[in-house]
Write a structure and sequence with these properties.
33% of the residues are buried. It is globular and about 45 Å long. The chain has a 5-stranded mixed sheet with strand order 2-1-3-4-7, with helices on both faces. The chain contains 10 helices and 7 strands. Strand 5 and strand 6 form a beta hairpin. Helix 2 runs parallel beside helix 4. It is an alpha/beta fold.
Length: 216
């Protein structure tokens, strides 16, 4: 009798600096029942150098791609963090150029809370914290950040993530990852570009996360 070969699924890995991003992606994965397993790693704070250290120590077995989801405000507001972001960015570019496991850097400017507000058409650039408290009914911003059902809250009126994606202004993105997906080989080729002049602008390339995930 021939031996049954166990199918090994490749995983996406998501590195994120805050509970909000972790909770959002985790609930998104559960609700959408994604066919590709997502290994979510909550970084629980720390600077960009913490991401770089974690990535260098992380294994690549059965990994399809690694998403690194960060806030851009740290590089704008904290001394030394722009240099740390540069090192993280260069590391990701090196991995992508060498044909290794794709490292897809997602930068939310100023932060993921801004991206969350874009899920509703009511948001027209107001103060993020006040908008979250008034329009989403949280007692404070910390309650919002710790809500494990944040994906459900933001998408309670349907697939509001589509509203968010439509509201993103690509011309404001600090980082852009051009990608090509080869489904037959389970490969993703990434070409990363960036513009430091756009770092302080409100924007995000989180659309790339949705587009690549949906490709599989």
């Amino acid at each position: 009798m021939s031996r049954r070969v166990r199918e090994i699924k490749k995983n996406f890995k998501v590195f994120c600096e805050g509970d909000t991003e972790f909770n959002y992606v985790n609930e998104m994965k559960r609700q959408k029942r994604l066919s590709i397993a997502l290994k979510l790693v909550n970084m629980e704070g720390g600077g960009y150098s913490s991401f770089l250290k974690k990535l260098k120590m992380d294994g690549n077995t059965n990994c399809l791609a690694k998403f690194i989801i960060i806030d851009g405000d740290r590089a704008v507001n904290e001394e030394g963090e722009k240099d740390n972001l540069r090192e993280l960015l260069e590391f990701c570019i090196l991995q992508n150029r060498s044909g290794r496991i794709p490292h897809i850097l997602i930068v939310n400017c100023p932060d993921f809370e801004f991206v969350a507000c874009l899920h509703t058409p009511k948001y027209k650039g107001q103060n993020v914290a006040r908008f979250i408290i008034k329009e989403m009914g949280y007692r404070d911003i910390d309650a919002f950040k710790s809500d494990k059902k944040i994906y459900s809250v933001l998408n309670k009126n349907g697939n509001s993530s589509d509203v968010m994606l439509a509201a993103l202004k690509c011309e404001n993105c600090f980082v852009v990852n051009e990608f090509k997906v080869n489904l037959s080989k389970f490969e993703i080729n990434i070409k990363t570009s960036y513009n430091w002049e756009k770092l302080g602008r409100r924007g995000s390339n989180i659309n790339e996360f949705f587009e690549i995930i949906d490709s599989f």
